[in-house]
Amino acid sequence: MLASQETEAGVLLPCDLTVTGFRNQKQVASQTVSFAPGLALSANMAKAQLSGFSNVDNVEFVVNDLNQVAAALLIDNVKYDAYLKEGSSWSG
Predict the structure, then answer these.
(1) If exposure means fewest CB atoms within 10 Å of the residue's CB, which of 21, 28, 35, 47 is most exposed?
(2) Distance between CA atoms of 71 and 69, rounded to whole angstroms?
(3) Rounded Cα gap, residues 44 and 70, in angstroms
(4) Residue 8 has what DSSP assignment?
(5) How far is the C-alpha of 34 from the C-alpha of 66, rounded, in Å?
(6) What integer pLDDT is reported at residue 66 of this predicted model?
(7) Per the confidence metrics, is the pTM higher than 0.90?
């Protein structure tokens, strides 16, 4: 999305989103998802279901091919499952 500080809305632009998963600071998974909104002023959200991202401790989201300074990626409804390793504990 191309937006500015003066606007509440932006122009939807096609882009690719690369999601990369890391374990112990080493890349173990990567997947690219494309978004093509067409010519409409609004578009449905694009669902991205990632595979191969099990047992990761860091996930990075990078928008490709957007050279504009005022670009934004809107992410909503992130769903994930977290599992503790046997013998570990969580203090949260």
Answers:
(1) 47
(2) 6
(3) 21
(4) S
(5) 12
(6) 60
(7) no
